[in-house]
Amino acid sequence: MVPVRPPALMRLFWPGLLWRMPAHHRTLYLTFDDGPTPEVTPWVLDTLREHDARGTFFLVGSNAEIHPALVQRIRSEGHAIGNHTYSHLNGWRATARDYSADADRAQALTGTRLFRPPYGRITRRQSAELRKRFTVVMWDALSMDFDARVAPEACLHNVLKHARAGSIIVFHDSRKAEMRLRHALPLALQAWREQGYRFAALPEEMCITPQRR
Ligand SMILES: [Zn+2]
After folding, report:
1. pTM (2 decimals)?
2. Among 43, 40, 80, 83, CA closest to 59
3. Domain 21-199's class?
4. What is the pLDDT of residues 160-172, one digit of tens each?
């Protein structure tokens, strides 16, 4: 089972990866992986707009290639874009060279300095290679919306329980997550707004010290 909040040890094992943004402001960083998806991404964009929220979309290159208008819409509405490899590669099953080449192929379609490894799986060697060109973004809280065994209410609970100032929170704008996402995202946005949070895109040109805890 993937931990909803990564344990401190896991963060220490991966120095130089970004798990959380500085907590100076009451800001949350919502991220959406695996799109763009025509059935889901426009709804996410509409929902974010209703809450005056910006987020970050970690795009799969092969999806970005098929849906350039959605990529354009994400950018034009003030959100950030991240690279999530071209073919959603599992780093544990790919050589460092293949992994890097797949990220480069997606880079031609995403043009960003942010990278998130699919499944959160990346070797130290791949990470060292990618960090020459990217900020490698992990997370502070997972909604688990990609997991069909998790109830929609539990996805909502996961993010509400674990979000704190500076949290990087993972959702998925994919068909697989859609049912859980459509339940959890609007309710979470509403609850967080009532708690005084704002929602920002990750800066694509980042020069910050990764937070360890
Ligand atoms: Zn993914």
Report:
1. 0.92
2. 83
3. alpha beta
4. 999 999 999 999 9
